[in-house]
Every structure is written in structure tokens, then in C-alpha cells.
Amino acid sequence: MSGDYLDINRRNWDERAGLHVAAPGYRVDRFAEDPAYLSDVVRFDRPRLGDISGLDAVHLQCHIGTDTVSLARLGARMTGLDFSPASLAEARRVAAGAGVPVEFVESDVYGAVDALGGARFDLVYTGIGAIGWLPDIRRWARTVAGLLRPGGRLFIREGHPMLWAIDERIEGPGLAVELPYFETAEPLVWEEAATYVETGGRTLTNTVTHSWNHGLGEIVTAVLDAGMRITGLVEHDSVPWEALPGRMHHDDSIGEWRLTDRPERLPLTYTLQALAG
């Protein structure tokens, strides 16, 4: 199974890369037009990121590099890592257009230490929608720990595992917990021609993906067992895209989506930070 999920998901993400770089939601042109422009995700993260200028940082599962370039604009010496060569080709174009130096490296996450070198980074950054493509959260945490220098920091903002457990396909005002909350041995297998941003009607031909959920306790325990010390855990009631269509509204004040009805019912994302020993 280990090789199969990588091949299946890589074909899907190779195809998504072209759709996403052309999608209005990614605003790729803004990076070349405005030297101060940051992605919405990194702009949201800034109060918790703090000053990252001068840090050696790696963005795991960087996709087309919009967050990676944004972090470089905040002063970090950035490396972006992704398993999709098509995504990395687009990421290099985004960085070149923005005039920002970023090193992009092709590797799956579990091979990151071999691809990049151990104990090399002051900051490991992982963004929303990343770790759900990985089958083993403990192995992910060990990889992060292996990349960090002593005292280096993990920063992850992710979709909350309770959000991933909600089946968005069930219509109506209620929230139905129909999908696994905890990590399972077997993946969730999806077949979807659409992606998560507006693509002008263009659809995918490589429609199958494999994904896994990881409970918040499983993530925290994996980080601790990998020898890191947790310094912050914040749950948010907002998410960068309309994760539950028809049940959310866009909050312009933060540039994210919230539940319209009783938003206090459901955490949508979280930020976790930890330091390497």
C-alpha cells in the first residue's frame, strides 16, 4: 500500500498543479505584481509565527509554493519540499516571478531527512491540508524532529480532525460525523473530479486519492514522543476555504470562512507549535 498511495496521490496533485496556478483563489499573479503580497494563509499565521527573518526554514508539502514564497518575504531562507514534480515546476515559476530565492526539492515527506539533511532547519512549517495525505502521523513527527536543529521550531496550521470527520456531502443544516476521526490502517479512498478551488469548470482526470485523518491527541502524542516540547496549541473557528458548502459565510475581517449557524459548535483549524530538544 505504501507505494500505491504515493503514486495515486502524485498523479492527482500533478494534475491539480496546473489548475491551481490558474485559479483565482490562489492569486498567483499578485506575487509578481506586489512585492509585499502574502498568501491569505501566511497572513493569518503572522501573529503566531512572529519574527522569522534570518531563519533556515523548510515548508513541507509546499505544493505550488505560494505560502513558501510568502514565508521567504517575511525574511526566512526558504526551502520547499513536495512529491509532485508538476507542483514544484509551478512553484519555481511563482518564486521567479516574485523575485524571491527559494530552493525547491522533490521528495515525499518521509524521505525529507535523506533529501535535505538532518538537523538543518530552525523552522519546519506545514500548512493546511497537508498531513491528511500521510498514513502515519508518528513517522511524520519523527521526520520533523530529524529536520530541526536543537531549539528549532515546528509550526503547523491544519484542518481540525473534527472538520475532516464531517461528511460535507450530507446536505442540511446539521453536521454529520460520518468519517473517521482517528488514524486508521486503511485509507479513505475518494474519487472526485473537482478540486477545492474554482477552476472555471475544468476538472481532473486522475480523480482517485487516498487520505487519512489523525486525531488531535494522536498528533500531540506523536510530537511529544518524537522528543519535541509543545509550546502552543490554538483551535480556530475559521478555515481558508468554504469547507462545508452552503453552511458557511466569508468573514472579510480575517479573510476566512466560518460556520453561519452557531460557529462555536465546531473547531475548523488549529495551530500547533513545538520546539526540538
Describe the fold and architecture.
It is a single chain. The protein is of the alpha/beta class. The chain has one domain: Rossmann fold (3-Layer(aba) Sandwich). The protein has helices at 2-22, 28-33, 40-49, 66-73, 85-98, 112-116, 137-147, 161-165, 216-225, and strands spanning 56-60, 77-82, 102-106, 121-126, 148-159, 188-191, 208-211, 228-236, 248-251, 256-259, 269-276. α4 links the parallel β1 and β2 (77-82). α1 (2-22) runs parallel beside α5 (85-98) and α7 crosses α9. The longest helix has 21 residues, at 2-22. The chain is globular, with a radius of gyration of 18 Å.
**CATH topology descriptor:** Rossmann fold
- The CATH homologous superfamily: Vaccinia Virus protein VP39
What oligomeric arrangement do these chains adopt? single chain
First and last CA, distance: 33 Å
Instruction: Report Rg.
Output: 18 Å
- Estimate the helix proportion, in percent: 25-40%
User: Which regions have little confidence, pLDDT < 50, spanning 5+ residues?
Assistant: none
- Give me the count of strands: 11
Number of helices: 9
Q: From N to C, what is the helix and strand string?
A: HHHEHEHEHEHEHEEHEEEE
The best one-word shape is globular
Structural class assignment:
alpha/beta
Mean pLDDT: 94
